[in-house]
Amino acid sequence: MRKVGGPKKSFTVNVSVDRGEIVFEPCCIHVLPGDTIAWKFDGKRAFAIIVKDFMSPLQWGTKVIDMGAKLIRSGVVADAEYGLFSYTICAVDGDKLLVADPEIIVHPPNGGRG
């Protein structure tokens, strides 16, 4: 397990739409405070990321990009609570709103269980 204060990491979530379903990989992101997450899209539609928890571990709680844009990026804040954070990926597909619910897991400092 990595320790807080060590090298920061960047994680990429690849997101696309296939047959009316949002497809994303990986399904879970394991991070420490200070890491960065980037969501890569195909640019063919508008996308949004919405953190469902009141206190987001990210630098924002909601981010929306228009058709043509291909990237949403955020750092994990230094004082992020540890735990499991559900978030939603939304995509517009014609007249439909597609939704998927992956997770961000913020590990406790120094690898403990809290």
Q: Count of DSSP E strands?
A: 10
Largest β-sheet summary: 6 strands, mixed
Order of helices and strands: EEEEEEEEEE
Taken as a percent bin, the fraction of beta residues is over 45%
Number of helices in the DSSP assignment: 0
State the helical fraction: under 10%
Head-to-tail CA distance between termini: 14 Å
Give the low-pLDDT segments: none
| Cα Rg | 14 Å
Task: Provide the structure class.
Answer: mainly beta
Q: Give the overall shape, derived from the CA principal axes.
A: elongated
Mean pLDDT: 90
List keywords for this structure.
114 residues, 6-stranded mixed beta sheet, 4-stranded mixed beta sheet, mainly beta
Can you describe what's shown?
It contains no helices and ten strands. It is an all-beta fold and 114 residues long. The strands form two sheets. Strands 3, 5, 6, 8, 9 and 10 form a six-stranded mixed beta sheet that branches. The chain has a four-stranded mixed beta sheet with strand order 2-1-4-7, with no helix packed on it. The radius of gyration is 14 Å and the shape is elongated. The protein starts with 9 loop residues before the first strand and ends in an 8-residue tail after the last strand. The mean pLDDT is 90.
